[in-house]
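Same chain as my last thread, 166 residues:
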Amino acid sequence: MSGKFWAWKLQPEEVSYLEGHMGYELTDEPSLDFLADVPIAKVLYCIPDGMDQLRAIQKDMPAELKSGISTTFSSGRYLEFNPEGVCKGAGLRQLAELLGIDLADTIAVGDAANDASMVEAAGVGVCVANAQDGLDQVADYQAASTNDDGVLKEILEKIVQPAAEA
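reply #2:
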């Protein structure tokens, strides 16, 4: 089953950003009531170049709104809302279990706060050179490369091959 992404009041710079990243359907619904019977994996609130505003919104959210959800940030533009317990770290643990792989034998690479649980859960957690939100504080290895300029090659040469030779 593939997912669906609904967008409301997209700013022109966000339309440009999303092109090539994901498909979306525009909606002008004034509330989320039309999604009452739709299983929702994630809600994103976007302010391009507005991380300070997003952090303030998260901080000032009423407790009843935070009940049953977890929040994090990504791409320097999103405040993410997930069901409590749903995170990339849980996904990596479940994937490793399904594949019969010891979690210690996994490598996870991230660039933002929404990757922290995955980077921490992995046998080797890697943050790219342009990582944000203190991801370098939880990573075992900080790459000299970014996700756009060869981080996988660097991981192969610096982590995988030396481990295979040991």
